[in-house]
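ok trying this again, last paste got cut off
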Amino acid sequence: MPEKLKVELTSNQPIVRPGQVNTFNVQADFLYGAPGSGLTVEADMRITVDAQPFPDFARYSFGAQEDRKAFEPPFLTLKAPETDATGKTRLEWGGDIKDTPLPLRAQIQARVFEPGGGRATKIEKTLPVRTRNAYLGIRPTFEGRYSREGTETEFDIVAVDAAGKQVARPGIEYKVERTDWTYQWYEVDGRWRWHSIANDRLITADTVSLRGDAPTRLKFRLSWGSHRLTVIDRESNTTSTTQFYVGWYGGSDNGEETPDTLRVASDKENYAPGETARVRIEAPFAGEALLAIATDRIISTRNVQVPAGGTTVDVPVSADWGPGAYALVTAWRPLDKPADRTPTRAIGLTWLGLEPKLRTLAIELGTPEKITPRQRIEVPIKVGNLQGEEAFVTLAAVDEGILQLTRFRTPDPADYYFGKRRLGISMRDDYGRLLETRADDLGRIRVGGDAGDIGGLEPLDMPHEVRALGARELRPLSGSGMARRTEIDFLLSA
């Protein structure tokens, strides 16, 4: 059965404001023209964080990441009387919500039921919710979350009002902090567990005045690692933050890593053949590392000494890598040195990509904006970056309606052939299972055997004596590379 009602939902104000009464109008009419009078109305509203609150500043981020994690979207039920003789009714919300500096949005759904408690016709509307009169936006000038090491890291900062219009704001505070991770160990039921702790170290801080007609650019020269930029407007009580990396880091994106994660990064995303990639290695301990360059096979390996503060290794980039290669690093520490439950080994990797633009043909088609049926057209084609070689072109004309029916997306051959590959090798090791000289339970000597009911035999009650044949302290293993050896002597008596 087709629907019988047409329902409209409108608001008396373009922006929903907490702390005051906000009203929403519902108009219900039968499709044959008569107003829908005396109909039951239900409605609810969910308030969520607005990911893109201001369309003119879609590439900017607004609000602090800590506030985003802590925000709990409320689900509110709105009450409304039955529709009047003209088919109208009104929803109200008193604006009760926990204060937050984040830009929000309200998703309102109204349901009007057909006469006699029949089925409901739904209507939805989304409106911005603003708790502040000004918001601060941050836009990095680099792509993604990674800034190249050795160059200036730049950000554009703007201030906008609740409607999204850029405004001038004096005395805006900003600071850049470096984030380092430590791990807190604790024991539960005889087993050791951990949780990570972020330690922020202030790098620089200052104030800046924001213009009302153009973004204000901040520039920093930072060393490798994880950083956070914070901008604060004390007068408007609003804050925005962004987390970013200096160096092309190949680790986790969730901000929390296990204690045996080795942080490995490259100085930039892509390289030209013949260039030198600078691979940064930071281990949770000082020790030795094995650096392997791998695709679907191991290309090369080398041993690297990793001091407590980390090290940087130069890796020549070869065209034989194809689209690129992984720098796979395994670090381990000596077991005869105190480490306070630091992992015995750590593993990390990063992708060293070859610049795809060097091997990508730039194609330009000179098609007219509009063509008429049953005519012959000539399509000029320009191919760039040929480097003196011959090229072959295939041109296809396809009906746009057919593409929409199948939801066809034009493939990107450059990304397919020259994009990042999945790691094509597997790695296994037993180093983490070696016994530590200070382990609590591992390596503890146990005496006896045949305990319990084994094969129906009762243990014999015979006098016995346990004597130690000898004991020696574990000696450090000597040698180089992956093969190490030592010798331990015992004197056995009769």
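PB: full thing came through this time. The mean pLDDT is 83.
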